[in-house]
Amino acid sequence: MSKYDVAVIGSGPGGYVAAIRCAQLGLKTAIIEKYNVLGGTCLNVGCIPSKALLDSSHHYEDAIKHFEEHGIEIPGDVKLNFKKMIARKAAVVEQTTKGIDYLMDKNKIDVYTGTGAFKDATHIVISGEKEQTIEAKNTIIATGSKPSSLPFIKLDKERVITSTEALSLNEVPKHLVVIGGGVIGLELGQVYRRLGAEVSVVEYMDRIIPTMDGGQSKELLKVMKKQGVKFYLSHKVSAVSKKGKEVTITATDKKDEEVTLKGDYCLVSVGRKPFTDGLKAENAGIKVTERGMIDVNDQLQTNIKNIYAIGDVVRGAMLAHKASEEGTLVAEIIAGQKPHINYNLIPGVVYTWPEVASVGKTEEQLKEAKVEYKSGQFPMRALGRSRASGDLDGFVKILSDKKTDEVLGVHMVGARVADLIAEAVVAMEYRASAEDIARMSHAHPTYAEAVKEAALAATENRPLHI
Ligand code: FAD
Ligand code: NAD
């Protein structure tokens, strides 16, 4: 029987990063993945394919809507080859997952294909083509999550679909009804809107991306409405039925008035749930919460001392970079180090266009905690860079402590803010004040100048360009 210092179950961005870090620290490491492709949700049916389709559909939209204003004329009609777009996405995924094979090989990590199930706290049975048992001093559970749904919805995965199917459709929907105006619904809704679909989003709360800063919800709603997406906010879906190629979605508004929407596809994107099926956690005595999450302490250790859990299967944001940070943390703890994660500084990004990015506390959270703060905001449209590219929507907002000026939250909507948020993370990690950011030189012309201007506005209410 093969023996390891660490066995990692699951090869998503939590698991594969944990395995690499363990190997770097000299620990003999195995990784177990039930699919024959590594990379988990993120690489196969999450972050990477959704961003590939967002980029492709953005190019298409530019070609049909914006090229002309830049003086680019295309003789004849621009044609969409959707099958090719999907094939390109698949190629991007394949290249990326092959990269993980290379990394496992380079770091001398043993890869097992098959479902990993606990026999006891130190033995894992792997049921793949052949059944094998390995022994591990420590195990890291990184089994991720799966889409959740509503109890009355029957996901047939053809017309009533999750994000997984929405990333590999055979045709552009005529009318895509999206249930849930969160990250997945808006990213994939925007992809299909750009490609010509009618898109309707039904959201239970009174705003989209409800966990982000209210200003961001408002701005993105305004822009996406302009792009032609229809929104039904404060609507509770009560029934979804399918007849042939037609899906009927019934929802009620706050006044209990019924709305019926008919589409050819319905994307259910109401969140994801932790995944532990087949793991047989009970054989090792591991505590799983009522909601199916693996229960962990602040060292990500389960109630069984030598077993840890990370990523989507534990509490916290379901984000790839959060899972990876946790993978690194656990590997370092096992190796005897004392690492830490500042969960307040895990950024959140929505890759619509304009992009939406956030770190730290929202205005709503500061108000609720009764923290006195200053707010400085700068509109993207006042930047030379935005006028040059034509990306005028959005803003940067910096929230800082009223007395000390320490930056408490940064919230952005605009072109490339997914990349700009890194500046805010660095600043907050070093506990910068808004004035610190305001006094740093930002290259001109860049979108980053909006960060400096918002910091000037937060510091002394003296932005330079508005
Ligand atoms: P996962 O990536 O889910 O990996 C878990 C792995 O464990 C899977 O490969 C699974 O097959 C395997 N597994 C499960 N049980 C067993 C078992 N018993 N034995 C062996 N293997 C097992 N996050 C971002 O940060 N940015 C984004 O842009 C982003 N976009 C997304 C887009 C979509 C459409 C979706 C669905 C998600 C997106 N996410 C994004 C979220 C991100 O994908 C997850 O947060 C991330 O993948 C979680 O990583 P993980 O390692 O915890 O689990
Ligand atoms: P989400 O939590 O972002 O959004 C779900 C939305 O559905 C919420 O707005 C919620 O209010 C709404 N909702 C819930 N029940 C409803 C109901 N009955 N009727 C109508 N609306 C309802 O979840 P998601 O968009 O499914 O994404 C799942 C996870 O994947 C998220 O945790 C997210 O972090 C991750 N993800 C991240 C990215 C990214 O980082 N860019 C992209 C995609 C997914």
TrEMBL record:
Co-factor binding comment: Binds 1 FAD per subunit.
UniProt KW Disulfide bond keyword: yes
GO cellular component, one term: cytoplasm
Intrachain S-S bonds: C42-C47
UniProt-annotated binding residues for NAD(+): G180, G181, G182, V183, I184, G185, L186, E187, E203, G271
Domain Pyridine nucleotide-disulphide oxidoreductase dimerisation: 346-455
Entry EC number(s): 1.8.1.4
Residues covered by the FAD/NAD(P)-binding domain: 4-327
One example of a Gene Ontology biological process annotation: 2-oxoglutarate metabolic process
Catalyzed reaction equations: N(6)-[(R)-dihydrolipoyl]-L-lysyl-[protein] + NAD(+) = N(6)-[(R)-lipoyl]-L-lysyl-[protein] + NADH + H(+)
One Gene Ontology MF term: flavin adenine dinucleotide binding
Active-site residues, record numbering mapped to chain: H444 (proton acceptor)
Cofactors named for this entry: FAD
Sequence positions that bind FAD: K51, G116, T143, G144, S145, D312, M318, L319, A320, H321
EC top class named in words: oxidoreductase
UniProt KW keywords: Disulfide bond, FAD, Flavoprotein, NAD, Nucleotide-binding, Oxidoreductase, Redox-active center
Similarity comment: family membership: Belongs to the class-I pyridine nucleotide-disulfide oxidoreductase family.
Any further remark recorded for this protein: The active site is a redox-active disulfide bond.
Protein name: Dihydrolipoyl dehydrogenase
Protein species of origin: Aequorivita viscosa
Lineage: Bacteria, Pseudomonadati, Bacteroidota, Flavobacteriia, Flavobacteriales
